[in-house]
Amino acid sequence: MERKHKGKCPFCNSEMAPEVIEKNTIRRDKCKCTTCGEIIYKCRNIFCNDYAKGGLLYDDELCPPCGEGLLKAVKEFPDKYRAAIQKVVEEKNREKNN
């Protein structure tokens, strides 16, 4: 059976090289953790080598750490860029009124 690269399982947190149980060309390969037997998929973050959870109705796109990182970035975005966005909007409004 073919194996994927080593990465962390989102279910049992073990570092393993999962077995490919369904090879795909367009979608991600369906894999099985060699430690706990759960269905997993490669994380969609191209810089990450870990795995995302597979489910009955939905397969996660990102592994837990990447998902948490994205959520944190989205929460911080408004505070970090609010002043800059407001400045651009005010400049555009001034240009419109002139």
Automatic annotation (TrEMBL):
It comes from the Bacteria. Gene3D superfamilies: Zinc/RING finger domain, C3HC4 (zinc finger) (3.30.40.10). This is Uncharacterized protein. It comes from Salmonella newport. InterPro entries: Znf_RING/FYVE/PHD.
